[in-house]
Design a protein that fits this description.
CATH superfamily of the largest domain: Periplasmic binding protein-like II
CATH architecture of the largest domain: 3-Layer(aba) Sandwich
Largest sheet: 5 strands, mixed
Low-confidence stretches: 1-28, 442-446, 451-456, 460-464
CATH topology of the largest domain: D-Maltodextrin-Binding Protein, domain 2
Number of strands: 25
Distance between the termini: 57 Å
Length: about 650
């Protein structure tokens, strides 16, 4: 973390030289105040100084105006994004609510003051003080006060288990000046906490403690369809539940001229049209009903856009590099289910997945296999543990799989003709070792009528029999892969067939997005596809992902249900790392133990953002390194818009 040479420090040095006997007394009676920071970074120093005018990844003269039309899949029934109750509308928290500090999409783990003017904290990280900007306002004109910040912390911790865990170490917030709030932490040494507090959404206390249109006091813990009051660059203009929502730019947005906001939030309106499935949404974009489309399907990217609009540059097809930690996207087990509590069983599921075949047949060879929870960064565990990482792992040696110390974790690879067969044999060995044995079982035939059943009864049927795994109690190894869209279903079906060949009674169940959300929040599933997005500086969020205390909290991100004392201890080693070197070593250890517990079957990643746009936009010459930031820094170019309209006509 960067530091500056302050006059108070200079005076102390001069006093020590000129008046040696008095220097200790002066230093103790008049300690230097904590440094005031305009920005914080957990990876080096912030790129921009305190007097910067704007970020270099924006166009400060970007035109304001126009409408961005986007598609969304599924539906929504709530305008409150801070509770697990209901399905919130797209981008609510991002567009409508400011935080104390703003993330920089160009710098990993870096934040710049937004609602605050500066932040300071003592050397032991036991507290953090934020000076609020006097000009900060909510969208109804009310000033943002320390009381609003204090309310926000308490209300968010009550509203959602994710905030409960994320702000677990924040004991209290209190007003320490007309525009100052001080957060007190329960432990020393957590370097991440000032930035975690900086991510706090600032909510209007007067609004949430007031009465709604129904005459009842508003409740942040419940869903609502009353358009809320925020503090951010957009407010809700109109909406139709489950069908559409339009955001309107706040013309007098209080922060629009701040260096941290210049050149951003340029669209006058951002409209989301909801579709039940990805296919009609994609076709709506191709027909010109939507302006931009982020393509998630490798197959569609390769085959669905070989059209004149692309070849004629009326539609732009771009793979934009993304410099982020590779997320762990995976089939995640619900370890609350008895049948997958044995790591050997979970490893067998991984051995049964033929990624190379799927990549060739379904993904046109575009993907790479995910190999780590912190892939593509210095945080990824490689080789065998040594040095500081080994020291950390030795503190939990008796609580982790022995392979952690002896074998580098790897996904199975199917490059040669016999690889898949060998992996399936190894999977069967692990399943047998875990107490599962194959038993012949007649396969169900939905087309078998009365005559068919009569023949079977007298032994004349040649019905097919399947091999089914059973344990000592006669139970079967069942596995339902829960999905909420057709592409996921299409990918999961061949995997389920491979699992069936091992004797696992696997099936794929597709439900609508609302039911899917409810089942995941209530941990009512066997296997889902989950994504665990990491930063370059992991910390408190690890408790939410893998901490034992979050395992039974409905709506938490510990969807796997991890309850592992060794992992809890490794999370603390990450959270309370005293240096970058310690953090990297502790993260290596955590990564390695998570992998060897086989909590997931890793899927794949693509180091680009697949983006298609109709050629009507302007954008900065240099985009942020961590994505396109379409909503944040692009704008409507009227000349291009008119040219496209002429070409279409």
């Amino acid at each position: 973390m960067a530091s500056t040479f302050r006059p108070s420090t200079l005076f102390a040095i001069m006093a020590l030289a000129v008046f040696p006997p008095l220097a200790p007394t002066l230093a103790q009676d008049h300690p230097a105040p904590p440094e005031r920071h305009h920005a914080l970074s957990l990876v080096g120093a912030p790129k921009f100084p305190a007097d910067f005018k704007h970020f270099d990844w924006v166009n400060p003269d970007a035109a304001k105006g126009g409408t961005l039309r986007m598609g969304a899949i599924g539906g929504f029934d709530s305008l409150n994004p801070f509770t697990p109750m209901g399905e919130p509308a797209a981008r609510l928290s991002t567009f409508m609510y400011d935080t104390l500090m703003a993330d920089s999409p160009d710098e990993p783990s870096t934040e710049y003051c937004l609602v605050c003017e500066w932040v300071s904290f003592p050397a032991d990280f036991t507290s953090a003080t934020f000076r609020l900007r006097p000009e900060a306002r909510f969208q109804d004109g009310a000033p943002i006060t320390p009381e609003d910040v204090i309310f926000s912390l308490d209300a968010l911790k009550k509203a959602h288990p994710r905030f409960t865990k994320y702000y677990e170490n924040v004991v209290k917030a209190e007003k320490t000046g007309d525009h100052e709030v001080t957060f007190t932490f329960d432990k020393a040494g957590n370097r991440e906490l000032p930035q975690i507090v900086g991510q706090l959404f600032v909510l209007p206390k007067h609004y949430w403690e007031g009465k709604g249109a129904n005459g009842e006091t508003r409740d942040l813990t419940k869903s609502t369809l009353e358009a809320p009051v925020g503090s951010g660059p957009y407010k809700i203009k109109s909406f139709e539940t489950n069908r559409s929502l339009t955001y309107e730019r706040v013309k007098d947005y209080w922060a629009k001229d701040l260096p941290v906001s210049v050149g951003q939030w340029n669209f006058d309106n951002i409209h989301f049209q909801y579709y039940r499935d990805v296919f009609p949404a994609r076709e709506a974009f191709k027909s010109g009903q939507l302006d931009a489309w982020g393509e998630a399907s490798a197959s569609a990217w390769a085959t669905q856009f070989n059209i004149p609009a692309v070849s004629e540059a009326r539609m732009l097809k771009e793979a934009i590099p993304v410099e982020r930690v590779v997320p762990m996207q995976a089939w995640a087990f619900n370890t609350r289910r008895a049948q997958v509590q044995d790591p050997r069983v979970r490893r067998a599921f991984n051995l049964a997945f033929n990624f190379e075949r799927a990549n060739k047949a379904l993904f046109y060879g575009q993907y790479k296999r995910v190999e780590s929870y912190f892939g593509g960064s210095e945080l990824e565990a490689k080789g065998l543990p040594e040095g500081r990482e080994l020291e950390i792992l030795n503190t939990v040696k008796d609580q982790v799989p022995p392979e952690v110390f002896t074998t580098e974790w790897k996904n199975p690879v199917n490059n040669e003709p016999g690889d898949s067969r060998n992996h399936m044999q190894e999977a069967m060995r692990l399943l047998k070792e875990a107490g599962w044995t194959l038993n012949a079982e007649e396969a169900a035939d939905p087309n078998c009528g009365v005559f068919c059943r009569t023949l079977r009864a007298v032994g004349l049927s040649s019905a097919r029999t399947d091999q089914v795994l059973r344990n000592a109690k006669g139970g079967t190894l069942d596995a339902e892969i829960l999905v909420d869209n057709e592409p996921s279903e299409r990918i999961a079906l061949p995997y389920a067939e491979d699992l069936k060949s091992l004797g696992i009674r696997a099936k794929v169940r597709r439900v609508d997005s609302a039911q899917y959300q409810r089942r995941v929040q209530n941990f009512d599933f066997d296997i889902i596809t989950d994504i665990f997005q990491q930063s370059h500086s992991p910390g408190n969020e690890q408790r939410e992902f893998w901490g034992s205390a979050a395992a039974d909290m409905s709506g938490s991100q510990n969807t796997i249900g991890v309850k592992n004392p060794a992992i809890d201890k490794l999370i603390d080693a990450v959270v309370f790392a005293k240096s970058r070197e310690d953090l990297v070593a502790a993260t290596h250890a955590l990564d390695r133990v998570l992998l060897w517990n086989n909590y997931v079957v890793p899927q794949w990643h693509y180091p680009f953002e697949r983006l298609l746009t109709w050629n009507v936009f302007g954008r900065p010459a240099q985009l942020p390194k961590q994505g396109s930031s379409l909503f944040q820094v692009w704008w409507v170019d009227e000349a291009k818009k008119q040219a496209l309209a002429s070409a279409r006509s």
